[in-house]
Amino acid sequence: MKNLLLLSLFFVTLVPSISYGQQPSEHTAVWSPPTPVFSQQFDWLQLRSGEWLRGDIISMYEDELEFDSDEFNTIFFDWQDVAELRSRFDQQIRFANGEVKQGFLIVKDEHLIIISDGSEQHYPLSELLSITSSSDDRTELWDGKLSLGFDVNVGNVNQLDYIASARLQRRTPFSRFKVDFIYNYSKSTLDDDAQVITDTGRLTTYFDWFYSSKMFFRVFDYEHFKDLQQNISSRDTLGVSLGYHIMQNKRLQWDLTVGPSYQQTVYEDSSSASKQHSGVVALGTLLDYSLSSRVDFLFDYQIQFVEQSSGKRNSHLKTGFEFELSNDLELDVIFYLDRVAEPVSSINTVAPKSNDYSLVFSLGYDF
User: Fold this and answer.
1) What is the residue-averaged pLDDT of the chain?
2) Whole-number Å distance between alpha carbons of 263 and 260
3) Does the chain have fewer CB atoms within 10 Å around its N or its C terminus?
4) Can you tell me the mean pLDDT for 94-105?
């Protein structure tokens, strides 16, 4: 009897142990990475893979988020790779219907929350068009580039050539302001026969207002141009344009513009009047394509239809490649073409050639 009692106690103890061992999933907690403490000194980004990044939200356009991480510097993410986003500053959020809201931003579970004045507003994430900081003094709204290339020849040819260019841009959900400058100068360095060979400069600046995701208005468009070889002391053009985004995504931007302008040209010296005025019909296209994470292709072509006394047709082409050497440095290989269909000659001289070509190698600094 005693043995039977001991055997019964053994089975009572053993069977539950076996049963529990066969079903560990009911009693084992599934591990998940901890949610960080959201310090108000940073914006926070979580990827679909689960990683968290802290830093600064710069902007989101065309389903591409630009985020400045303390650890990895500026990174671009496809919007579909973002699981969660939290801002520390007010953001300007633009929706597909043109409506703009401002407030602290939380994006989570395909949902968008805007917190403003103590209240929350909820929207489907599918309605989001763009995000930009509402703080006008944030430097992240600006970007720019400086480039310099030069060539010194000594020996049979004594000549100094250099070209400098600069670009500055500011973009918000509503607008884009851009300034481009390029200057090309060549001079003979012979002491007894020093002369300027090339002296060309071009400054362009414009302001775009985005009407929709596809259409924009260039409400201000100005260009200043000088070219010693073309006998042009200064050529100033002021106008407006209508623009259209033919295509715009993470890798490709392709814009088309058309509009009227007014132009004044001052010649160095000519047999006709030294100052000419003309109406202008301006056409332009800009294509910027990322061949890879480190190589960009650029094609920028502008043409102005003007009166014959101002050249009849004035064209400018800039095309080539930009190679990223590091986060801030780029090597640019750019081909330029400037064309005046009917150049105006100086007094008692042969008219300049219509086309001026140049192939430029320069080192650029992005900021």
Assistant:
1) 81
2) 10
3) N
4) 82
- pLDDT score, position 17: 47
Most confident residue range from 12-21, 99-108, 282-291: 282-291
Are residues 318 and 299 located together in one domain of the fold? yes
CA separation (Å) from 240 to 34, 51, 208, 223, 279?
A: 54, 46, 10, 12, 12
Residue 236 has pLDDT above 60, yes or no: yes
Claim to verify: residue 217 and residue 243 sit in the same structural domain: yes
93, 112, 135: which is the final residue of a domain?
A: 135
Pairing of strands 52-61, 64-69: antiparallel
Q: Say which CATH number the domain at 108 has.
A: 2.30.30
In contact, 34 and 46? CB cutoff 8 Å: no
| Segments forming the whole domain that contains residue 113 | 43-135
- Residue 106's DSSP bridge partners are 86, 113
Contact 332, 319 (CB under 8 A): no
Please tell me the total count of domains within the chain: 2
Which pLDDT score, from 0 to 100, does residue 109 have? 84
Task: Compare 318 and 71 and report the one with higher pLDDT.
Answer: 318
Tokens of 90: 């007010």
- 3-state class (DSSP) for residue 213: coil
Asked whether residue 249 is domain-assigned, the answer is yes
Contact at 8 Å (CB) between 314 and 302?
no
Q: How many CB atoms lie within 10 A of CB 334?
A: 22
N residues, the chain:
367
Closest CA to 114 of 90, 145, 95, 78: 90
| pLDDT of amino acid 85 | 92
pTM of this prediction exceeds 0.85 = no
Tens digits of residue pLDDT in 168-209? 998 776 788 999 999 988 887 666 666 777 888 999 999 999
CA distance 181 to 356: 18
**Residues 255 and 343 occupy one common structural domain:** yes
